[in-house]
Amino acid sequence: MENKSLKKQLELLLKSNPKELEKLASGILKSNDKKVEEKDFVVKDDKAIATFGMVMKISATFANKEDCPKDIKFGTIRGHFLNKLNAKKSPLTQGQVAKILKLESLPATDLKAMRAYKKLMSK
């Protein structure tokens, strides 16, 4: 009940002061332009199986870096780590995802595996 009355009061205030509304909107837009600091990727259980969202986080993180190899693109990275996620013997864990995200670039073994798969599929 209290939220509804506050909402109505706020609406009346903003309708009566359009310059104030414009000022608030421009402040919000300016605050969204600021670069957000990246925080460490934290997991609750290191041994739990990773999620699809975590695989997408790895893909987006490394595909958008400047030092990412030109022959390795977002889809290649995503496919590689999805394959690891769906492995029967030892699926990708949340702890492994956290370690990968802390690295500056993708591990050389993963890059080698991605290139080998691309080469195999191109024949």
Short description:
The protein is an all-alpha fold and 123 residues long. The chain contains 6 helices and no strands. α3 (52-63) runs antiparallel to α4.
Quickly list its features:
2 domains; mainly alpha; elongated; single chain; 123 residues
Architecture overview:
By secondary structure, this protein is an all-alpha fold. The protein folds into 2 domains: 32 residues; 71 residues. 64% of the residues lie in helices and 0% in strands. It has 6 helices and no strands. The longest helix is centred in the first third of the chain and has 16 residues. The radius of gyration is 23 Å and the shape is elongated. The termini are far apart.
* Share of residues in helices: 55-70%
Q: Percent of residues in beta strands?
A: under 5%
What is the N-to-C succession of helices and strands? HHHHHH
Number of helices: 6
Unreliable stretches (pLDDT < 50, length at least 5) are none
The domain tally reads 2
Structural class by SSE content: mainly alpha
Number of extended strands: 0
End-to-end C-alpha gap: 67 Å
**Rg over alpha carbons:** 23 Å
Mean pLDDT figure? 83
Largest sheet: none
Shape: elongated
What topology does this entry show?
Layout lengths: L1 H15 L1 H16 L18 H12 L10 H12 L8 H9 L5 H15 L1
